[in-house]
């Protein structure tokens, strides 16, 4: 994103960068200065270790309003109560692995742009935390499980002295690997898991 700033503005920005103790302000200044020198947003993001969306937001903030100082509290006020409730509901039903994906979703749905830090604050403020979901077998059936329990209880009553054997198997294989994502605190997120067809079958039985 190429922008134009005057020599006076550049000197003021460089002076502010040298005197500011706020790293966030310094990052914003560096993004503006590098953009004025012809750096792309992707190059600036890599150099500053920021997401490209955040870099674009910093540059737009300066170009439009000369904003360099981040506001405390992030971007929570950008969503009204209705949109906030809708976003909480959507995030509770769908797993997002990265904050920038949520930023992109909000911008696509409501044309409201968040920065990565602002969205992180919004997520924490509304009860979300970054944690790993719980894996459940993709063929799990609660109905079949209930039928088995009923069958087993009846079997114990009719088996008499005959032993009841439980046979199980272990199948070492390359299975689905769960990763972290934004999940609301106090809630569990389930992800269907599968494995490859190449595996070793080990059988065992317990009385």
From TrEMBL:
Signal peptide: none annotated. Coiled coil: none annotated. It is found in: Nucleus. GO terms for cellular component: nucleus. It comes from the Eukaryota. Residues 94-151 form the Winged helix-turn helix domain. This is HTH_33 domain-containing protein.
